[in-house]
Amino acid sequence: MWKDAYVESIVSKLSDDEISLTCISELNDVVTKSLKKAERAAYEDQKESFLTNYSKELSKLVRKQEKERNSSSGSSIKTKNITEDCLIKKNFDVLLKNYEKGRILHEKGAIGHVSLMHLTNKKANEIKDSANGWTRMTVTSFAYHNTTTWPGQSDGVQYEPVGYWCGNCEGGAEEVNLLKAVGEYTKFTQCGKNWYEFKWPWERIGENKSINEKAVNFAESRLGVPYIPKGGDWQIPYLDNFVKYKWSDDYSYCSQIVWRSFKDAGGKQYDFEDNLSLPWISPNDIYVNHKTDKITSWKNDKK
Fold first, then answer.
1. 133/149 Cα distance (integer angstroms)
2. Among 120, 126, 220, 269, which is 20 to 30 Å from 22 by CA?
């Protein structure tokens, strides 16, 4: 029952999302190839072999997708800037209409990207008339590397410009999902000193402003924590060493920050990994998880 319900929740999100469906299929192929290679290793080395090959296969996929993205836009793999004048008004208006502290922005793609809205809706709308592509409206972890840059960019957990999410510059997201965390009741939920309520396979709690507030507080407490160490001279997100730093307090990546923020705020009821102890948590994991719901989406047409 749990498996059927979980699959059904994923299918409902992907039924009209061909890009994410393709990406998840490709990521599944990465896992399959890594498992097959690990099976050929000595028993005691199978875990290490899987992680090593998983990183290599994932790197190949990300590089392939990055090259295809640059090829389709007619550019080479060079620095792409978030520009001051890049905002697409209609998409920015959609973001403002649905802006709430603790909601999640998800970039579609093989790996993608996620950020947390850290302002209140009132504050976001107060600054809308003076906002531009560089206005910081989300908190995330972002690598200081040579693919996307903006003025004042640092390495690791930082506030991020809205032009990444609603802009027409090449450095930003092409297709965006706006999500809310809805959690789930645990199998047994205490509803009194000695009384427990049984929920199966699950029921969603619904968006909780208190949980959102705590999640943002956790993310902001991590400001300045550096991104995962580079594994080479040229880095795009999630390559090389990411599988070693999922639980790290010394390093970060975007989906790790969002996942840990909600896990810290709401425990396993808001654990987007579902306690599966996977080697990493990806933006797509957060998107397809049944503890998040999609509110809306948009596409940013590039110059």
1. 12
2. 269
Q: Cα dist. 157→76, 134, 140, 160, 187 in Å?
A: 27, 17, 5, 9, 34
Among 301, 300, 302, 284, residue whose Cα is nearest residue 104:
284
The C-alpha atoms of residue 206 and residue 155 are separated, in whole angstroms, by 34
Q: Which of 21, 303, 65 minimizes the C-alpha distance to 172?
A: 303
Measured in degrees and rounded to the nearest 5, phi and psi for residue 157 equal: -70, 125
pLDDT per residue of the chain (303 residues) written in tens, 0 to 9? 778 888 888 888 888 888 888 888 888 898 899 899 998 888 778 888 887 888 788 778 877 766 765 555 444 445 689 999 999 999 999 999 999 999 999 999 877 899 999 999 999 999 999 999 999 999 999 988 657 899 999 999 999 999 999 999 988 999 999 999 999 886 665 666 666 666 667 788 999 999 999 999 999 999 999 988 765 444 444 455 566 678 889 999 999 999 999 999 999 899 998 756 667 788 988 999 999 999 999 999 987
Q: Which amino acid is at 87?
A: L
CB contact at 8 A, 194 and 117? no
- Which helix or strand (DSSP H or E) is residue 177 part of? strand 175-181
pTM higher than 0.85: yes
